[in-house]
Amino acid sequence: MKANIYVKKRVAIVGAGMTLFRRRMLETPQELAWIATRRALDQAGLELKDIDCVVSGSAPDAFDGVHLKGEYYSEGAGAIRKPHMRVYVGGGTGVFVAIAAWWHVASGLCKRVLAVAEEKMSSAADPHPQAVFRHIWDPFMEKPLNPNLIWIFALEMHRYMHKCGVTKEDIALVAVKNKRNALDNPYAQAAANITVDDVLNSEPLVYPVNRLDISPVSDGAAALVMVSEEWARRLTDTPIWVEGIGYTLDTSYWTNRELSYPVYLKNAAEMAYKMAGIERPMKEIDVAEPYDPFDYKELHHLEGLGLAPRCKAAEMTKEGVTQRNGDLPVCPSGGLLGVGNPIAAAGLMKVAEIFWQLRGEAGKRQVKKSATTGLAQAWGDLMQIGTVVILRR
Amino acid sequence: MPSLPRVAIVGMGYEGFTTSSEHLSFREMVFQAAVKAYEDAGGIDPRRDVDSFISCQEDFWEGVSISDEFAPDQLGAVLKPLYTVTGDGLHCIANAYMMIKSGVADVVVIESHGKPSEIASMRDIIWFSTDPIYIRPLKIPNPHALQAIEARIYMESRKLSREDLGLYVIQVKENSLLSVRAPYSHRLTIDEYLSSDYIADPLTIHDIAPYSDAAIVAVMASEDVAREYTDTPIWVEGIGWATEASTIQLRSMEEDIATRIASDIAYKYAGIEDPKRDIDFAEIDERYSYKALQVVEALRISSKGSITSDLRDGFFSRSGSLPVNPSGGALSEGLPLEAHGLARLLSAYEQLRGIAGRAQLSDIEKAIIHSWRGIGTSSSVVAVLSR
Questions:
Q1: What CATH number did the domain enclosing A321 receive?
Q2: Is A5 inside any structural domain?
Q3: What pLDDT score does A3 carry?
Q4: Which class for A393: exposed (0-12), middle (13-18), buried (19 or more C-beta within 10 A)?
Q5: pLDDT bracket for residue A131 (50, 70, 90)
Q6: Looking at this predicted complex, what is its ipTM?
Q7: Which of A82, B146, B245, B334 suits A227 as a labelling partner, its CA being 20 to 30 A distant?
Q8: Domain region containing A40
Q9: Is residue A164 situated within a structural domain?
Q10: A70-92, pLDDT tens digit by residue?
């Protein structure tokens, strides 16, 4: 990206909404998208007729079992007879929806944009939706080995533990914290009061990953209303500004990378910090929602984002810095581990949570410190992409 | 308010437009196209000069879930901003346009490719794109039937005969004899056209675009940067896109409403008041012969009342007042899936730069390009280009 970002138009979030995150929701993907959309419109005080563009996101078409999935759910996302754009970066999609919605408004082409993310995973495959991930590999080099997604994340987790001298106990603290945070989240699927021992004693899946180290399979949707500065001033006294966006994709050949540190995320975060004028992220970010489909990922991502020194995120967690009443509250929503992981919807939920936190509307989840700047991040593909959004009050 | 930068296409490259391509992987095809595009853009270095890359592709066409994973290496985009848009290549152009307008990027590279020759189960994939509750249970054996219904309704409402469709097909096939990218190019007579078998009444093999393999890469830049890279930038004056309805039973079959909405947006930004007067030629979607006529009408370069007489009077031929698909279009080039929109862009780009060789039109300033997402969808993109 260029050294100076000459962004001419400001973009604000004025409303957010989401559905329950649950396994085996009875609603269709279209209905899920619409429930979240309606709630976001309600908070913004707008009707569908006021929306001039729709940006949407959803992870693999194979989950919903519909080819051209964006065309299929467009009706639920409110996109009928409107410009509709679906963006897609695997697990990073949710946050990327907000990124693409940003330039829909910042370019001046659209004034009032709906950003919608939907995922319906639970009916995907028999016996388990994980089977969809059999088809995400290089068909020549990797597919013949029949790898499983949890295997490669186990490799990454193990590498991180080895390089940084982090133990399973340290990592389990993230699951304990996020699942407890989720107890205050009315949409949460996997909220629980558990201990480190519960995590360590849960069913081992692939060493070093146990069942409680992972977020669940979920269905759900989330939506935002993003508008131009003029409309933000007209609609609300407390717009939340999108101040920075960043994203970077690494090589397809994940086997050739040092897995202990996410360089792609460092680049993505630098892009967003530069745009937002943030020079010292550790001091300037008040609340963060890094992507936590696995508990080690929260630590890994905090380091990639520059919110923790390299290999020090576990120590920060142990000291309570990342608790809701800590110096840098992390995943106050309960994260994917607690709220659930309908992939694209989970990413956009993180942006929605930062929006609610900065507006002071997070209720029992509200962080203790006065937060003016927050960050949401997602991650996806073959441990390959980082997507970052920075919001300011 | 400071003015927003103009957006230009500064380089394009392609590989393929062949009926099969077993000698190249899709990555090799994209690499070839990218190298040519970077060269065409004045020899840019993707590692140094490009702010973002965009790939337009769909998982089921690729046979891989999360196909975004395999986009970066062949473009030189490793550890750079790159994302996928699940849409036609022109949806990527729209995103690049917005990124440059917003100021977040100066140079954006767009890629789209299609390798339908390697898809063993095309019919099932199309079946999977239909609404799972209302349409899929019908198990329609021939997906073209969905469009044949629309063709019939459209033809009846506009008093178009099969001879009229034949006239259009013969015209574009004739155009394609001048093209270097038309594996399905041939001379066709009206008798041959009328005597061929129906695939789905009223559509014959001549009315339905066959498939071809291709990869296309475009380089876009803001005005200041474009002037550094090339003396002949092609400007994107306006772009619009729209979706009408999610499934076929909810859509108008008589009119292409999505294209109408998309063109309204594109014309507004391009300052086009009378497209018939202001536009010099069109490169549009003709994956079905009737669709091209429906699109021409929606783009307002003809009208509901005059489409039939305009066609018969030769307005859309190479020598007519508004040539439509002087390249031969998808009926001659074949359909490289989501790369189709970039194929339309490529032909218009070559015409406007004056490098279209034997196919070159004279005295052209402005073009309109259009792409649709195919069977069962309504999503369309429209852009106005100028030199």
A1: 3.40.47.10
A2: no
A3: 40
A4: middle
A5: confident
A6: 0.96
A7: B245
A8: 11-125+215-392
A9: no
A10: 999 999 999 999 999 999 999 99
Residues A223 and A115 sit within 8 Å (Cβ to Cβ)? yes
Beta carbons within 8 Å of A181's beta carbon, 6+ residues apart: A324, A331, A332, A333, A334, A335, A338, A365
Residue A123 pLDDT more than 90? no
CATH number corresponding to B7-120+211-229: 3.40.47.10
Nearest to B242 among A9, A83, A385 (CB): A83
Q: What is the separation, in whole angstroms, between the first and last Cα of chain B?
A: 27
CA closest to B65 among chain A residues: A136
pTM: 0.97
Q: Report the pLDDT value the prediction gives residue B247, as an integer from 0 to 100.
A: 84
Across the interface, whether the CB atoms of A65 and B132 are under 8 A apart is answered yes
Of B217, B323, B331, nearest in space to B285 by CA: B331
- Whether residue A101 contacts residue A351, with contact meaning beta carbons closer than 8 Å, is answered with no
Instruction: List CB contacts (< 8 A) between A263 and chain B.
Output: 79
Cα dist from B191 to A254, A349, B167, B175, B346, whole Å: 58, 61, 11, 19, 33
B28 in reach of chain A (CB within 8 A): no
Residue A289 lies in a domain: yes
CB contact under 8 A, A60 and B4: no
* Contact call for B243 and A71, based on CB within 8 A: yes
Q: Distance between CA atoms of B380 and B362, rounded to whole angstroms?
A: 28
Give the total number of structural domains in chain A: 1
A193 exposed, middle or buried (CB, 10 Å; 0-12, 13-18, 19+)? exposed
Quick check: A139 and B106 CB within 8 A? Answer: no
B220-229 tens-digit pLDDT: 999 999 999 9
- Which residues 97-156 on chain B approach chain A with CB closer than 8 angstroms? 97-99, 101-106, 125-126, 128-129, 131-133
pLDDT reading at A5 higher than 80: no
- Beta bridge partners, A119, equal A220
